[in-house]
Request: fold
Amino acid sequence: MIQGFGEKLRSETNGSFDLVLSLSVLEHVKRLRSFLKLSVEAAKVGGLIVHRYDLGHAYHSSPPERLKTWIATYLPQLFPASSFTFKPNLKVIREELKNAGAEVISVECSQMNSLKKAMNHIDWKSAEGLQTALEILKIDKTIAAHILPSMSDIAIESLFPTVTIVAKRLE
Reply:
């Protein structure tokens, strides 16, 4: 496992991994283009690149945090990389992954805010709690499958703020 600022990965990691995974990271990456390019380069040809990011800072946090996120999205030079949070753009992420030599396989939007909040109250130690969590996840996926095709990107992001994009390295 390699930890630290991903855009500073060394070239010796190129083509080394079957899976490159970032969880709740993209919304904090100031040099997104470089980070995405390096994530593709780190994967073996045919390897998977998975980025799961959360737009909660942009839509469901406190008003000061939402303001900071909005400012950083449009004026990133005002913030150091160590405290950077912005609203990633799915279209840009898709384009950058493609430009880096990856094919996007799937995009999933999930975790409706109200359902996510409900899961915070589950008793995770009980079988009933785990079953309830599975049912909530199933409901979330069912709702997404039925309504996402008819929604705009902005509406999707505000309702389902967790985005998972899966790509495969081609070259």
The beta strands are 17-23, 43-54, 102-110, 162-169. The longest helix spans residues 127-147. The radius of gyration is 17 Å.
